[in-house]
Q: What sequence folds into this?
């Protein structure tokens, strides 16, 4: 298969809410979509109910979506979407060795930074599956909206304009618009960092600090995100787009966001164990790593640092708020 060809089969690896939503979107033009899950019982439920009652209840699977428990089925795919948490991506890529056909693009749909290695998601794929084309999909999107076919726009970045454009055309639908980019760093850093800032905004809302405080956190948080991303090689214009500012605004203002919801519960006084309510909030893993990476390139991220300190139990919410407010006066920038 070449980039000139239209994809016939797409594999979505990860049957959480986001994976299910993307599978539904990919199947709308009438393609075969394999929806893989690690749990064979979950796959059996998906096949029986034609609905992901565990993760996305009330939304039927599109007719072309085929639940699959055998990872070797990925060998049929023309495009592979990796839709597992960032911390599980390396394990998944290791299992894909020898299964994915040469030249088939791996599109990473996770937002985060790997703990311990400080690797961004595209780097993990490049290390584990050398030679496979890599792309990253990110932007302001909620799984329920995409699964139901509500209008959504996100960004897809790949190393070349040709690949990014082809993938955007192949995966986009009348309701899921994909803007393409070659700034992989900007897209993946925007997606990872905004999760940490969403926790901060949730904490402020849970504490009842008001709309003015939330607006300030979004604006100053974006400034932090942009400084770090540019220092890491991202393009400023990418950060002003869907995968940067757009995703930040959405995630920092809605309880549909797991990261915002985690912060809201912390702001209300819940401890970290109960505040997650059994849901994965990627920002909790990303926060300490983001702070370490920012320090390595001499970028100050006080909001992200406060979130990391709260999550580690080093300080409480009140102390974090006091520390931020007590920072020296400075010019905006």
A:
């Amino acid at each position: 298969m070449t980039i000139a060809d239209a994809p016939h089969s797409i594999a979505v690896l990860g049957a959480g809410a986001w994976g299910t939503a993307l599978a539904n979107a990919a199947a709308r033009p009438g393609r075969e979509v394999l929806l893989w899950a690690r749990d064979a019982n979950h796959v059996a439920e998906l096949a029986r109910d034609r609905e992901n009652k565990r993760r996305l209840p009330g939304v039927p699977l599109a007719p072309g979506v085929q639940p699959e428990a055998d990872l070797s089925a990925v060998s049929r795919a023309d495009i592979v979407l990796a839709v597992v948490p960032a911390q599980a991506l390396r394990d998944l890529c290791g299992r894909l060795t020898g299964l994915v056909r040469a030249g088939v693009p791996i599109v990473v749909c996770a937002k985060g930074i790997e703990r311990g290695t400080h690797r961004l998601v595209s780097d993990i794929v490049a290390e584990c599956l050398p030679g496979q084309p890599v792309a990253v999909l990110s932007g302001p999107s909620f799984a329920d909206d995409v699964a139901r076919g509500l209008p959504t726009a996100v960004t897809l970045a790949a190393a070349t304009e040709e690949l990014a454009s082809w993938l955007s055309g192949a995966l986009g639908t009348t309701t899921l618009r994909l803007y393409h980019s070659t700034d992989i760093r900007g897209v993946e850093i925007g997606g990872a960092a905004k999760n940490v800032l969403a926790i901060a905004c949730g904490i402020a809302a849970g504490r009842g600090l008001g709309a003015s405080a939330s607006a300030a956190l979004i604006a100053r948080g974006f400034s932090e995100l942009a400084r770090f991303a540019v220092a890491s090689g991202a393009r400023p214009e990418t950060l002003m787009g869907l995968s940067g500012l757009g995703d930040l605004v959405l995630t920092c203002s809605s309880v549909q966001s797991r990261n915002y919801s985690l912060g809201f519960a912390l702001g209300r006084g819940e401890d970290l164990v109960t505040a997650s309510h059994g849901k994965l909030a990627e920002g909790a893993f990303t926060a300490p790593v983001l702070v370490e990476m920012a320090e390595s390139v001499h970028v100050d991220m006080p909001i992200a640092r406060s979130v990391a300190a709260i999550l580690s139990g080093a300080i409480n919410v009140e102390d974090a708020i006091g520390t931020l407010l007590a920072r020296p006066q400075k010019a905006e920038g």
